[in-house]
């Protein structure tokens, strides 16, 4: 039997393989809410403009709401023969209400329908992700306030660089996540236009009111060009790109958690709730959640790459390739959402070992810059000379196998005769972080202030 929706000129139905490659219902059924919402708005507009009678539209609306209830209750049977969510719903509507169902598709095509559904779905996804990123920011800012003054090593090249505080480190991620949120918000704002009514590609000869449907669906305005409306997926790409950048941030943090939780670093202990054991090694506590956050970032990037590649060769307007926009997008959003929840959970439960962190902060001559700065400030040495003198002092200490603070004044004066014992005051890690009072620096008072600012800000949004 040929397809009832579009099979007028077909003598037979599709080959089984054709049906399999063509059907999207297995994955696009999750658009059912958006599809019904779009259809209700479209039908109401068709009545308001006199294109359909109010009686027909009442019957259509009642039928659509019935289908909504059926799907909600898990009683709806989706059929591959009906290809996608749009035709599954319309096909079922026809069974429920008969002929009037066929009028719903007046002045509409699946091309503008799917573009509308996808925008509605992506818009909700952006809102949900924003909420979850904000929750992770909150978890980080709360910890940052508590540990504003907890000294830990700061690294460059993963080598000891200068002491920082744990709170400062956590707030770095709060800043990154704030930019992630601003990217999500940007994407939302730009995509908030309604393609419904663009029809197949050229618009329609019916006197539709696109402003009315746009408003009913919560869009800022209708899209301005019908060809563009049905053929672009840049709003999905922007979403995936913002999601990828956010996933990259989570992945870097996850990598740090993996390192920090090793016995060798020992900076943090993850809770039992966010660790796993080994089936052979009884001592193990593995940071699987962090590893998976790191690993899953790749999947999200893959969805972005997949969609960019799928779109790049498509002439205007719609091509069926575009049906491939969905699985990667759904997967990426679901994956990021899970990663955000897991990261927030790990952060909330994480126990830093302040003693271990502080001890590690002093390793590797991490206060050498403080010494050089002291030579500049107190002895008025040019920084380059101070750098050189400090380098030689580090060489002496390192040859003895001790820290800078363990050198005697006499040993220091052999390298630089004008050094006084006041220098010892700047060689401690606490002193070092306290001195970093420049705007954005790691001084505990700064960090506390920033953490409070974030907590206040996050309570507002
Ligand atoms: N399932 C299709 C998709 O997701 C809907 C649009 C189909 N349009 C068409 N002209 N075949 O892209």
TrEMBL record:
- Chief place where the protein resides: cytoplasm
Q: Name one GO molecular function term.
A: argininosuccinate lyase activity
- The enzyme's first-digit EC class, named in words, is lyase
Keyword terms, alphabetized? Amino-acid biosynthesis, Arginine biosynthesis, Cytoplasm, Lyase
Protein location: Cytoplasm
The pathway entry for this protein reads as: Amino-acid biosynthesis; L-arginine biosynthesis; L-arginine from L-ornithine and carbamoyl phosphate: step 3/3
Show the stretches that span the lipid bilayer: none
Per UniProt, what is one Pfam family of this protein?
Answer: ASL_C2
SUPFAM superfamilies documented for this protein? L-aspartase-like (SSF48557)
PROSITE patterns reported for this sequence: FUMARATE_LYASES
Domain Fumarate lyase N-terminal, first and last residues per copy: 8-302
| Keyword Lyase attributed | yes
Reactions catalysed, as given in the entry: 2-(N(omega)-L-arginino)succinate = fumarate + L-arginine
**Which EC numbers does the record give?**
4.3.2.1
Keyword Cytoplasm: yes or no? yes
Residue ranges annotated for the Argininosuccinate lyase C-terminal domain, each copy included: 365-434
The record ties this protein, via PANTHER family, to: ARGININOSUCCINATE LYASE
**Which family would the database say this protein is a member of?**
Belongs to the lyase 1 family. Argininosuccinate lyase subfamily.
NCBIfam families in the cross-refs? argH (TIGR00838)
Cite the HAMAP family for this sequence. Answer: Arg_succ_lyase
Q: What is this protein called?
A: Argininosuccinate lyase
- Source species of the chain: Bosea rubneri
């Amino acid at each position: 039997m040929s397809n009832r929706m579009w099979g007028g000129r077909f003598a037979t139905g599709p080959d089984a393989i054709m049906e399999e490659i063509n059907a999207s219902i297995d994955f696009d059924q999750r658009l059912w809410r958006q599809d019904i919402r779009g259809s209700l708005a479209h039908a109401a507009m068709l009545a308001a403009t006199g294109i359909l009678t109010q009686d027909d539209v009442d019957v259509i609306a009642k039928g659509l709401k019935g289908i909504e209830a059926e799907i909600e209750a898990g009683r709806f049977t989706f059929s591959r023969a009906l290809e996608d969510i749009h035709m599954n719903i319309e096909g079922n509507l026809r069974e429920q209400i008969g002929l009037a169902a066929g009028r719903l598709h007046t002045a509409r095509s699946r091309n503008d329908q799917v573009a509308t559904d996808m925008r509605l779905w992506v818009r909700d996804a952006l809102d949900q992700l924003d909420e979850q990123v904000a929750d992770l920011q909150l978890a980080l800012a709360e910890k940052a306030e508590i540990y504003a003054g907890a000294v830990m090593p700061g690294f460059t090249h993963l080598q000891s660089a200068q002491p920082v505080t744990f709170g400062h480190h956590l707030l770095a991620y709060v800043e990154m996540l704030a930019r992630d949120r601003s990217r999500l918000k940007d994407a939302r704002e730009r995509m908030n236009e309604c393609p419904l009514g663009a029809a197949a590609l050229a618009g329609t000869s019916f006197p539709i009111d696109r402003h009315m449907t746009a408003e009913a669906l919560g869009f800022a305005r209708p899209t301005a060009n019908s060809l563009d409306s049905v053929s672009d997926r840049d709003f999905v790409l922007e979403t995936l790109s913002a999601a990828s950048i956010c996933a990259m941030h989570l992945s870097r943090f996850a990598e740090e958690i993996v390192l920090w939780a090793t016995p060798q670093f020992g900076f943090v202990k993850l809770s039992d709730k966010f660790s796993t054991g080994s089936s052979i090694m009884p001592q193990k506590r593995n940071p699987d959640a962090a590893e998976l956050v790191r690993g899953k970032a790749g999947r999200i990037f893959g969805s972005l790459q997949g969609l960019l590649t799928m779109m790049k060769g498509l002439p205007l307007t719609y091509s069926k390739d575009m049906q491939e926009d969905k699985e990667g997008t759904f997967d990426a959003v679901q994956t990021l959402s899970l990663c955000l929840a897991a990261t927030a959970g790990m952060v909330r439960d994480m126990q830093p070992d302040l003693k271990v962190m502080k001890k590690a902060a002093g390793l590797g001559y991490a206060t050498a810059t403080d010494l050089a700065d002291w030579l500049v400030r107190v002895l008025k040495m040019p920084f380059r000379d101070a750098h050189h003198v400090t380098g030689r002092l580090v060489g002496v200490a390192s040859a003895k196998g001790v820290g800078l603070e363990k050198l005697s004044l006499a040993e220091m004066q052999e390298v630089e005769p004008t050094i006084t014992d006041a220098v010892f005051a700047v060689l401690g890690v606490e002193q070092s972080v306290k001195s970093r009072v420049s705007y954005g620096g790691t001084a505990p008072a700064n960090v506390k202030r920033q953490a409070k600012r974030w907590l206040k800000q996050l309570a507002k949004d």
